[in-house]
Amino acid sequence: MSNLILVKAGQTEWQAQGRLVGDTDLRLNEAGHRQAAALAAAMADMKPSIVHCGKDEPSRETAEIIGNELNLKVKSSDALREMDLGHWEGLTIEQFRERFGKVYKQWRNDPLAVESPNGESVAAVIARMKKAIGKIVKKSGDRPVALVVGGYAFAALRCSFLDGEFAEFWKYLETDQEPQLIQYATIETRLAE
């Protein structure tokens, strides 16, 4: 029976500044490096066999730190990249709230209801990632696999796979998270939805 270890990518400077990051390629800041090392230590007992990640820089860099710490191969995929926030990327939360007040409220109340201009929706991210995760799970057999993704993707997958609803989406996005272990049976059920 396979397990998926869902891991949120480490912090970038934009996140520290309260900016919307999306799939913008930014290096991890010092806190992000510490987070990645702590994530590796936290998941060592879970014994992942490989680390899969998105091609966005924060996910890749976090995965590489974990891979180096645990002596694991790292494989990146465009299908696992962070959510594209389009024209909103780089805005601070305050700027976003001031410029797009109605959309901001709607997005906070229902993360599935909004899609950024020239970006993608949470539902699109989930659909894109479920296909990739389905292939990863099939190939992994009974070996645990680590999956490192950006914050929005982490929150979307956490809500989709473990919660089955999106009430905690913003909490998962805005707080540091320990690696989340998802049992194979749960993965199979959620992939079928």
Compact summary:
The protein is α/β, with parallel strands linked by helices.
Report the count of strand segments.
5
What would you say the CATH architecture is?
3-Layer(aba) Sandwich
How far apart lie the N and C ends? Answer: 20 Å
How much of the sequence lies in strands comes to: 5-15%
Rg from C-alpha positions?
A: 16 Å
What's the average pLDDT?
A: 91
Helices, by number, come to: 9
The largest β sheet comes out as: 5 strands, mixed
What brief labels describe this structure?
49% helix, alpha/beta, five-stranded mixed beta sheet, 5 strands, Rossmann fold
Report on the architecture of this protein.
With 193 residues, the chain is of the alpha/beta class. It has a single domain (3-192), classed as Rossmann fold (3-Layer(aba) Sandwich), CATH 3.40.50. Helix content is 49%, strand content 12%. It contains 9 helices and 5 strands, in the order βααβαβαααβααβα. It has a 5-stranded mixed sheet with strand order 3-2-4-1-5, with helices on both faces. α2 (30-43) crosses α3 (57-70). The chain is globular and about 45 Å long. The two termini are 20 Å apart. The model has no long low-confidence stretch (mean pLDDT 91).
Layout of helices and strands:
Elements: E1 3-8, H1 13-16, H2 30-43, E2 51-54, H3 57-70, E3 74-77, H4 93-99, H5 101-109, H6 122-140, E4 145-149, H7 151-163, H8 169-174, E5 180-183, H9 184-192
Parallel strand pairs: 1-4, 2-3, 2-4
Antiparallel strand pairs: 1-5
Helix pairs in contact: 2-3, 4-5, 6-7, 6-9
